[in-house]
Amino acid sequence: MITKNELLKLAEEHSPFCVSIFIPTHQAGKETLQGQDKSRLKTQLKKVKVKLEAQELKDKEIDEFVQPIQDIIDNSDFWRHQSDGLAIFLSKNQFKKYTVPVHFEEFNYVSDGFYLKPMMPLFNGDGLFYLLTLKNDEVKFYEGTRYTITEVVTPEEVPSRLEDVVGYDFEQKNLQFRSGQQGDSNSGMYHGAGEGKAEELNEMKRYFRAVNDGIMTMLHDDQKPPLVVCCQDFQFPVYKEVSTYQNLYKEHVSGNPEDKNINQLHEETWSLLQAYFSKSREEKLNLYAEHIGTGKASADINMIIKAAIEGRIDSLFVQNGAEIFGEYDSKSQEANIQSELTNDNISLLNLIALKVFKKGGNIFIMEKEDMPDKNHKKVNALYRY
Question: What is the C-alpha separation between 243 and 239, in angstroms, rounded?
């Protein structure tokens, strides 16, 4: 899991050869078994080496520099634990790799800073959420987006069973929920000896409090995606009471997680959250339409760059897969747009996205047909003032 603070540190890196590589990956299946993801990274690494050769680095220098990426290629175990996308960042000062629930197009970028625009959907209103599934004998944690979901290995601080917290001498029969009541949110009753008594409730609170404390060791960043819980109805009020996460979602996925496969979990979770994520985006799109032509919104690349540097952008809309390459003069704050990426220019959209990200603005990566300005589709901006 990448945190916002880590991305901000990557954004501050400036050195002669900053390498960024993105490839789509697979969680399982024949693509994994046949090494297709590994082959993609090999291909991108070859292209990076060609770019480094053009910078007049010697073969030995290049091989030593990219050795961390080569080590990944040679690590067969690494390829068995993937999500939907792999992002790699390498410079003389840093080497980071992130397995994330975002499908990337194959891409590499070599410049004096990292290419971080593809990571923005994880942080800026494009549907990142967490899912926690709770049972007495199993806890699982997932990271998801609108289109994907991936299980995240939890730290050892997260107990895997109620017994690990309350001990092995409790009576299991007291913790069995009456079948047939899972859909009734008011039926928080146990059955067995001492039905509904406080002892079992306290055991559940202790268990859920330990789960919460363990989960919070993972979520120490200021990024606060909604956290949805999947559990039986009588359990959710108990977890809600002990949770300290600031954005625990008000509704839960109802039912026993054991009865749902990962696709069902994803579908039901997104069904809960769709309106949550759509609301902010729709509000910003409406404001853009209202303010275009007033000086409070723009589709002009030079005006947007200037506003991004000054911290005036409230929301940035970037076309998915689009690029604008060119040279940027920081003194005149003017961009010279060029047709392709060379050793002497940069991605202007990446520059803008990083400036907006650092200043706390919203960034929406959108499909071409959904962009607010139909005549200027690659980048639009709504200003704070």
Answer: 6
